[in-house]
Amino acid sequence: MILQAHLHSLCLLMLYLATGYGQEGKFSGPLKPMTFSIYEGQEPSQIIFQFKANPPAVTFELTGETDNIFKIEREGLLYYTKALDRETRSTHNLQVAALDANGAIVEGPVPITIEVKDVNDNRPTFLQSKYEGSVRQNSRPGKPFLYVNATDLDDPATPNGQLSYQIVIQLPMINNVMYFQINNKTGGISLTREGMFRGALVGLSQSEKGSWVCPFQRCFLFPSPLLLIGSQELNPAKNPSYNLVISVKDMGGQSENSFSDTTSVDIIVTENIWKAPEPVEMVENSTDPHPIKITQVRWNDPGAQYSLVDKEKLPRFPFSIDQEGDIYVTQPLDREEKDAYVFYAVAKDEYGKPLSYPLEIHVKVQDINDNPPTCPSPVTVFEVQENERLGNSIGTLTAHDSDEENTANSLLNYRIVEQTPKLPMDGLFLIQTYAGMLQLAKQSLKKQDTPQYNLTIEVSDKDFKTLCFVQINVIDINDQIPIFEKSDYGNLTLAEDTNVGSTILTIQATDADEPFTGSSKILYHVIKGDSEGRLGVDTDPHTNTGYVIIKKPLDFETAAISNIVFKAENPEPLVFGVTYNASSFAKFTLFVTDVNEAPEFSQYVFQAKVSEDVAIGTKVGNVTAKDPEGLDISYSLRGDTRGWLKIDHVTGEIFSVAPLDREAGSPYRVQVVATEVGGSSLSSVSQFHLILTDVNDNPPRLAKDYMDLYFCHPLSAPGSLIFEATDDDQHLFRGPHFTFSIASESLQNDWQVSKINGTHARLSTRHTDFEEKEYVVSIRINDGGRPPLESTVSLTVTFCSCGEDGCFRPAGHQPGIPTVGMAVGILLTTLLVIGIILAVVFIRMKTDKGKDNVESAQASEVKPLRS
């Protein structure tokens, strides 16, 4: 045995020398605390290090967690005899001491730490061979309804133990669309947007009041001016169950040498009771006690918080909802004020996050006959010529009823109650019962009988009656045509920039019929030479003078010369046999002179959309303009405050010249200037709006500063607190979907973090044995985006004594405020200085007194004798 031991030592020594271990400082050195890292599974009998000791040490001793694997030779060679297994023990804590010839410790012991480094020698395994779960149709995309979990014995801090989940198979696969998705890190299974709806994204238009207007009958709103329309695809009536095959791989799923495992997931699709109720009809002006329940909504699970959203932002919103989902009308409705209401019912969780899309509630207000007919004016005036034929229409009386149109409540009946005077007879007029059109019933009227008739007409619906008054004036027959004072008004020259609304010409015609009647009133029309409608004529009702005005801008480029023809005519028809002739027509020639005009853009606002991560130099849009005179145009930008863009001054193409950032502002608005090249260099301005679509380029962060997190010390039970994360990226259709984990392995024995929803998490203590001090807990937050971004944040949690006023934190030393020791030192120093001063004073006084005595003695010795 002794010989065998010597041979083993000799072999180790030869290996030691052959591999260079004898070099001082490389694989050998003095006895001191050291840490070594060794991969698990390596061949045994590997030399780790040689310790060298100073006399009188002659040998070494190894103790601690050797597991009968680690050995040390007399010469100080530390080695191991068996392959290590990290899963059995990840760290071996050893002690090495140097002994003298008598076996007494003369140096050490010193700690030696052996860290066993992981290799990927374990495959991941699911905790269950089959999972079962259920999901309701129309559930919110991205919200997990089931988790699958796998474990891997390898080190989770290395890729060996980092697992990635993936859906391999979905059965049935309808239209080659995946209805389910899995979070590759957490194993959370949720619906895709396709699983919730199959349809198209469409934009919302914006009303004049600033609210979003849906162009379709059924719209599901999200926190964006976008909506998703379509039919529910995940339908339990069509496919009540689905089967998924889920795989899990280690190495983060990024290596061809990854180990993997699979499991089966059976999913039952249940009916979603979160459905919009049928439209409600509510009778207006109800006298029943309010509020009145009119309908209800229900979330699939208890605990939802309900609210109503006024889609139209009305000044009076007469509806409410309780926490049972019952919807009430809170006051009587008036159909004449508003005949229908559309609003949304929203269900949220305890943190205020929407559980699903809002439901659209429709309430129609039923009409009752509560409005009488109203006359169009106090007196309605019509004119009729003397020679009017029997049956001709005189005019139409149009009364109004505010009740619902096309119902019996607003159906009006007309009846003539009285005619005055009854000359030459009564019943000269009739009125159509439902249309209100007045007709001449018996004979032609004569002005010599009476120049005016007054009719009293009863207008009624099924419950109300109203009297309206009509005045019919008998006028002379229209047997005279308008005649222009001159047929040719000559030439007129105007610049093309003459202001719209300017009066450019006065024309005049006369009519010999009875003044101030429809027979003599003259209306002027441009019948030739102005196809664009740039001119118009206003008539003075007292003089029949016509004023020619500019209605639209003149344009030299399209109409430099225009031969304008006017016609003068009466609103009343001419009598039989009389027609308009050349005397009722006039003309003039309009010459338009050229004015140098600024370029004209093809659009007032140009808009383009690009991703915020486009490469510098990418074309992001273009603008077009033209010069009316055909001059070349030069383009430039104005208001590019961020220096993101440049424009090709010839083509109008716009390019990026710097990194774009949606979070800095989208849309990004700049002005584009088009300037004439040469000439007067006139310019015009248009708008360019660049809409930036989001990419995941902002890491998560805490939503606010958590400064006052504390637990009362000592803990009687494990405690927890809630925090919120956010980021600056855009989240369409759903909010953020963060995952949370403890960032440091050393903290995992004391703390754990659990996800509440996509933005909130709960930090909990694992035990109650904490000191009364501050703890800084590092938490890793991953946004799960593409690409995923991750950040580490810190929460400072204080364990402190609690009183009536909350947490008591002992004040620490503040700069400028002395401690007790400093105060004592200052006091002693002050007393010492005072003592020194007093001692100096006393010594000085004593010295001065001695001097006085000597001087007195000397004075007595020299004092002359008196005679």
UniProtKB/TrEMBL annotation:
<dbReference type="GO" id="GO:0033626">
    <property type="term" value="P:positive regulation of integrin activation by cell surface receptor linked signal transduction"/>
</dbReference>
<dbReference type="GO" id="GO:0000902">
    <property type="term" value="P:cell morphogenesis"/>
</dbReference>
<dbReference type="Pfam" id="PF00028">
    <property type="entry name" value="Cadherin"/>
</dbReference>
<dbReference type="GO" id="GO:0016339">
    <property type="term" value="P:calcium-dependent cell-cell adhesion via plasma membrane cell adhesion molecules"/>
</dbReference>
<dbReference type="GO" id="GO:0009986">
    <property type="term" value="C:cell surface"/>
</dbReference>
<keyword id="KW-0106">Calcium</keyword>
<dbReference type="GO" id="GO:0045296">
    <property type="term" value="F:cadherin binding"/>
</dbReference>
<feature type="domain" description="Cadherin">
    <location>
        <begin position="602"/>
        <end position="702"/>
    </location>
</feature>
<dbReference type="GO" id="GO:0005912">
    <property type="term" value="C:adherens junction"/>
</dbReference>
<dbReference type="GO" id="GO:0016477">
    <property type="term" value="P:cell migration"/>
</dbReference>
<dbReference type="GO" id="GO:0002314">
    <property type="term" value="P:germinal center B cell differentiation"/>
</dbReference>
<feature type="transmembrane region" description="Helical">
    <location>
        <begin position="820"/>
        <end position="843"/>
    </location>
</feature>
<keyword id="KW-0130">Cell adhesion</keyword>
<feature type="signal peptide">
    <location>
        <begin position="1"/>
        <end position="22"/>
    </location>
</feature>
<dbReference type="GO" id="GO:0005654">
    <property type="term" value="C:nucleoplasm"/>
</dbReference>
<feature type="domain" description="Cadherin">
    <location>
        <begin position="261"/>
        <end position="375"/>
    </location>
</feature>
<feature type="domain" description="Cadherin">
    <location>
        <begin position="127"/>
        <end position="265"/>
    </location>
</feature>
<dbReference type="GO" id="GO:0007229">
    <property type="term" value="P:integrin-mediated signaling pathway"/>
</dbReference>
<feature type="domain" description="Cadherin">
    <location>
        <begin position="716"/>
        <end position="812"/>
    </location>
</feature>
<keyword id="KW-0677">Repeat</keyword>
<feature type="domain" description="Cadherin">
    <location>
        <begin position="486"/>
        <end position="601"/>
    </location>
</feature>
<keyword id="KW-1133">Transmembrane helix</keyword>
<feature type="domain" description="Cadherin">
    <location>
        <begin position="376"/>
        <end position="484"/>
    </location>
</feature>
<keyword id="KW-0479">Metal-binding</keyword>
<feature type="domain" description="Cadherin">
    <location>
        <begin position="58"/>
        <end position="126"/>
    </location>
</feature>
<dbReference type="GO" id="GO:0005178">
    <property type="term" value="F:integrin binding"/>
</dbReference>
<dbReference type="GO" id="GO:0034332">
    <property type="term" value="P:adherens junction organization"/>
</dbReference>
<dbReference type="GO" id="GO:0005427">
    <property type="term" value="F:proton-dependent oligopeptide secondary active transmembrane transporter activity"/>
</dbReference>
<keyword id="KW-0325">Glycoprotein</keyword>
<dbReference type="GO" id="GO:0005509">
    <property type="term" value="F:calcium ion binding"/>
</dbReference>
<dbReference type="GO" id="GO:0008013">
    <property type="term" value="F:beta-catenin binding"/>
</dbReference>
<dbReference type="InterPro" id="IPR002126">
    <property type="entry name" value="Cadherin-like_dom"/>
</dbReference>
<dbReference type="GO" id="GO:0007156">
    <property type="term" value="P:homophilic cell adhesion via plasma membrane adhesion molecules"/>
</dbReference>
<dbReference type="GO" id="GO:0007043">
    <property type="term" value="P:cell-cell junction assembly"/>
</dbReference>
<dbReference type="InterPro" id="IPR020894">
    <property type="entry name" value="Cadherin_CS"/>
</dbReference>
<dbReference type="GO" id="GO:0044331">
    <property type="term" value="P:cell-cell adhesion mediated by cadherin"/>
</dbReference>
<dbReference type="GO" id="GO:0002315">
    <property type="term" value="P:marginal zone B cell differentiation"/>
</dbReference>
<dbReference type="InterPro" id="IPR015919">
    <property type="entry name" value="Cadherin-like_sf"/>
</dbReference>
<dbReference type="GO" id="GO:0048536">
    <property type="term" value="P:spleen development"/>
</dbReference>
<dbReference type="GO" id="GO:0016323">
    <property type="term" value="C:basolateral plasma membrane"/>
</dbReference>
<dbReference type="InterPro" id="IPR039808">
    <property type="entry name" value="Cadherin"/>
</dbReference>
<dbReference type="GO" id="GO:0006857">
    <property type="term" value="P:oligopeptide transport"/>
</dbReference>
